[in-house]
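Supplementary Data S3. Sequence and structure tokens for construct A.
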Amino acid sequence: MSEKRTGGFGRLLTGAAWLALLLALWLWGHGIAEEPISTAPLTGDVKPSGRPPAHGLPPAHPPLPGAGPQALAIRALGLRAPIEGHGLDPRGGVEPPADNKPQVVAWYKDGPEPGTSGAAVLVGHVDTKTSRAVFYELSSVRTGMKVTVSRADGTTAEFTVSDVAVVPKEHFDADRAYGPKDTKRAELRLVTCGGEYDRQRHEYTANVVVSAYLTGAGRTQPPAKPPAPLPAQTQEADDEGNAEETDGS
């Protein structure tokens, strides 16, 4: 999609409304995987859309300054993946990662950055024709699990999962599924295909949507400390050693 058309979406729609519409277009328009390698991913006890999240979760952390995402990690799944910024595809949906990059996550770069106010959206493949992909086990995520996003400014944004839902592609409430649950928080949506695979349409019948919110922040790499000065006696000994080496040369 050209910049002009993308900009038109930004002018016509604001906040949760435009984000929900863009995602709805992507979800209704096509699935992420063309052919599954096996049966559809298990959904276990994944909550249906609309059920309230569990209580007893940690308090929200204040939103962070803007910074682009670089990597996603879900320690409980052993998942760590690079993040690429993506816009819209020619059909008006969020562009997923390229088919030859099944282990890459796409961030909708015209929406919020992970850690800032609003709901940032990350999408990824569940599988390909030949292998599992980055979000193959996304449906096994549970409430309370941690999701970490490393950011370009050297900080990490830590999110806590508040809800996991399987959202049918037909007759679903896009605003409820993808809009922010609390506009004052920094939230995250992880989206992949789910449900059954429709071989006639070459797409899955639903999407797995993991909702999380910011509960912590840190640094990817702490600032380097300057080396401590040598003790006086050690420094003098080093100087004498250097002098002896010079005299003997």
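Construct B, processed identically:
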Amino acid sequence: MILLRKVVVFLFTIIFLVYVLCIKPSGTEKLKNKKYLFFPMILGLGLITIGTFIDMLSVFNNSKINDIIPICFTLGGIIFVVFTIYWTKFTANSITLLYKDAYYDAMTGLYNRRGIEEIFEKNIDLNEGFYVMIFDLDGTKMINDNLGHLIGDEYIVRSAKAISDSIRNKGVIGRIGGDEFLALLTHANEEEMEEIKCCIKRKVTKIFSKHDISVSIGVSVNKQDGESMKELFQVADRRMYDDKRATNKYKRVN
């Protein structure tokens, strides 16, 4: 019975070791400089496997080689635990990076469309009122054509910061397109919302004051203008284009 138990333990460890050796080549291709993380695991499992093998043979052999068993188990276990600590940290960092890639915009650091839509749905489920603001930067094409796309990217990044600084803790903001942004004001009243609009328009206009740039803004109100993301987005989008036409008309008159 003792022999059977030791054989089972040995078979389990050897199968696990072979499995790790088989997945290592394919598993490390995407880890780049993190490949070394697998070496402690393989070394630790190797020592534990050797220990279980000697332990299995100890039923037939009472020589001094049996003194190696506790050394293999102890050293192998320590090495494997060290690997587990490092691997847990690496996995946690990888999950954080994956989350950022999935929900945040790389250029501006704001939420991307997926991230802002998820927050949108959560706020609708809370059944509370909030404002939806859509922003469209005017003059992006002109800047790209005349100053280059690097300056155009700078315009988008600086505008994103201007919008974010104006909203602050009144809500959240995401980049939903090339030069389009969407914000949810969950902690603002109508007066504060109007102040935020004016502040954003003023700050964006000053980014490249020598050029004819501005931002068009449309606003919708949850429950008042709709109760779904599609409805609220459509109303805010329509009002944003109304704002754009009004701005263009003002520029032509002046």
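Helices lie at 2-28, 38-57, 68-103, 113-125, 140-147, 149-167, 190-207, 229-253. The longest strand covers residues 131-138.
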